[in-house]
Design goal:
By secondary structure, this protein is mainly alpha-helical. The chain contains 20 helices and 5 strands. The strands form 2 sheets. Strands 3-4-5 form a 3-stranded antiparallel β-sheet, with helices on both faces.
């Protein structure tokens, strides 16, 4: 089996390539994007259908008589915005991005994520809780109608009880008028005289009113109430359209029957109350006044009270029952989410903490556990995408030097070598040193060069000009100055502080402590032990000390080494273009020559060697 240079077989490398960390994260991201895109598309499409009132509004007209469906338009919009959301997410957590760029990309990602969550929630809610919400809404409507009918029945019972009391009182007063007289507010003897006849007329009116109320009002309304309470809310149909049609029919039937009951009760109640008040007015005329027949204020009071009960209108408080399956359910869920986003978020936080959802919407509908599951499902997808983007952020943009930059660097170095007497490429390399995670170009200050030494002055001018060219190419930079708002030292101040501290790698104190803890007799001490005991602490040698040593190696005079300039090299993907050129063994130039030769041989034919330009 073939083995690669790193010791792994080709099959092992292929397996690692297919099932490696980055590959698995990429596959998971694609899967989540597909799920999020499908849920958003389904929710947006169903929302458009659910809120549409025109059956012909499912297509868009284009100039020239052409048209395309809304489904195609929604697919394009969802694909574009989902891709943009993923792109903004990756750019927000990509390596090497500036914070100003992240301030633009992350808010845009949050906006698109909220858009995706909103329409995705409608899809998941319709899928998880749509059918149950439809049954619950229809049952609630039926319950409200039953409660309203029960309230009407209770009012009818109260009216019936009042009328029974009126009839009983009227019979009692009629018997009194027959036996002893004096029941009509004036003195009269016993027997069946004119007042007794008036009392009989009142009794007959009240009895007729009670029988009429019982037969034409109470009995029909009670029958309607019993029929309404016995009806069963069970949807019929196998498709969403058939079930929606059945739902609308049943909801309309329940509402219409409840309204009929209330309307009939109110109408008959008003007519009955009018008759009661007429009888009450007749028995309220005192003796000696016009229209007197039989004065009975107690009967008038009881009739007035019964009239008030009969005249009270029946009120209906029927909840809004909506069909929550298919497009209609998606549209209702999305509108309910955006109208009550605060209540949903607070309920979700409490639900995740283990509490039972007890919130409600603005219309009084309770927020249930199924609502939280649907919201968590759509939020979980976007949270998964966010986590994967954080775990595997895109690498920074490649900033490796191009062949043109390499040629410019090489030309600048060659120019410096030519202008510096006795210099070569190796002499230029000695001006580059490493210190604490960065590389630096070190040159003497041009003013510090010995004016009596013309060669050194020429070398100083050449290196100064080289540093300027590299700075113009953004390959080196001047050390950062301190910024007053950050309360931090500048780079030069930090480097100076390093030079004034004690060395952390000085072994003098360690050796002295060892000799102190393990003393030796004077006759056994070695000259090296005596040197350790007399050794003085070493000052920390930072970048400036290293720069002075590098300039000494490069052959600069003591005067030139006393005043130096340092230029940090720009780090690009762990490499520096200058050091790449300095470390080049000719491979870069060879590769450029081969590339140029390949371009010169290529002809107009883009497919293979048949179209290459013929050479002699």
């Amino acid at each position: 089996m073939a083995v690669t240079q790193d010791g792994r077989s080709l099959w092992g490398r292929a397996t690692d390539y297919l099932l490696g960390r980055n590959t698995l994260i990429g596959i998971a991201s694609i899967m989540l994007l597909l799920i999020a895109g499908f849920a958003t598309w389904h929710g947006m499409r169903d929302f458009i259908i659910g809120v549409s009132t025109s059956p012909t509004g499912n297509s868009q007209e284009l100039p020239g008589g052409l048209s395309f469906s809304n489904d195609f338009l929604v697919i394009i919009v969802v694909f574009a915005l989902t891709f943009l959301m993923w792109l903004m997410l990756r750019e927000s957590f990509a390596q090497g991005r500036r914070w100003t760029e992240r301030l633009v990309t992350f808010p845009l990602y949050v906006f698109l994520a909220i858009w995706s969550i909103g329409f995705g929630y409608g899809f998941w809610w319709s899928l998880i809780a749509g059918e149950e919400a439809t049954r619950t809404g229809l049952s609630g409507l039926q319950q409200d109608a039953g409660d309203a009918a029960s309230a009407v029945a209770a009012r009818l019972d109260a009216v019936k009880v009042g009328l029974d009391g009126v009839v009983t009182w009227s019979d009692t007063q009629m018997a009194r008028e027959e036996t002893s007289g004096g029941s009509c507010g004036t003195s009269s003897g016993a027997g069946r005289g004119p007042l007794y006849a008036a009392r009989v007329g009142v009794r007959d009116q009240v009895t007729s009113l009670r029988d009429g109320v019982q037969n034409s009002w109470i009995a029909p309304v009670q029958a309607d109430i019993a029929s309404l309470q016995q009806s069963v809310a069970q949807l019929q149909g196998s498709t969403v359209a058939e079930r929606q049609q059945s739902f609308n029919a049943m909801a309309t039937n329940i509402r219409s029957r409840a309204r009929d009951i209330a309307a009939r009760s109110n109408e008959l109640g008003k007519s009955t109350a009018t008759e009661m008040r007429a009888i009450a007015a007749a028995v309220s005329v005192a003796p000696g006044q016009s229209g007197f027949s039989c004065y009975d204020p107690t009967l008038a009071q009881r009739l007035t009270q019964a009239a008030v009960q009969a005249d009270q209108p029946a009120t209906l408080n029927l909840r809004e029952a909506a069909f929550n399956e298919g497009p209609a359910g998606v549209a209702n869920a999305i509108k309910r989410l955006w109208e009550n986003i605060g209540a949903y978020l607070s309920s979700l936080i409490g639900w995740l903490a283990g509490a039972t959802p007890d919130g409600s919407t603005k219309t009084g509908e309770p927020i249930t556990g199924r609502d939280m599951i649907a919201l968590l499902a759509t939020i979980g997808i976007d949270l998964g995408l966010l986590a994967l983007a954080i775990l595997n952020p895109p690498p920074p943009e490649s900033k490796r030097p191009s062949s043109a930059v390499v040629r410019q660097i090489r030309a600048a170095i060659n120019t410096a070598v030519q202008r510096a007497p006795g210099a070569n490429i190796e002499w230029v390399r000695r001006h580059f040193i490493y210190h604490r995670g960065g590389s630096y170009l070190v040159i003497p200050n041009l003013y510090s060069c010995d004016p009596k030494n013309e060669d050194e002055c020429a070398k100083g001018l050449a290196m100064n000009q080289l540093a300027g060219v590299l700075d113009d190419m953004d390959l080196v930079r001047w050390p950062h100055r301190p910024r007053w708002w950050s309360f931090r030292k500048g780079e030069l101040d930090k480097l100076k502080a390093e030079e004034s501290a004690a060395s952390d790698t000085d072994l003098s104190d360690i050796r002295k402590k060892w000799l102190k803890d393990h003393p030796k007799p004077d006759d056994q001490k070695t000259p090296q032990d005596e040197l350790f005991e007399k050794a003085q602490p070493i000052r920390n040698h930072g970048l400036f000390s290293k720069a002075e040593s590098a300039l000494t190696i490069a052959g600069w005079s003591e005067r030139a080494r006393r005043d130096i300039e340092i230029f940090p090299l720009e780090d690009i993907e762990g490499l520096t273009p200058i050091l790449m050129v300095l470390a080049d063994d000719g491979s870069l130039e060879k590769a450029e020559a081969q590339e140029a030769a390949a371009k010169s041989r290529k002809g107009w034919w883009p497919f293979g060697r048949g179209g290459e330009a013929k050479t002699a």
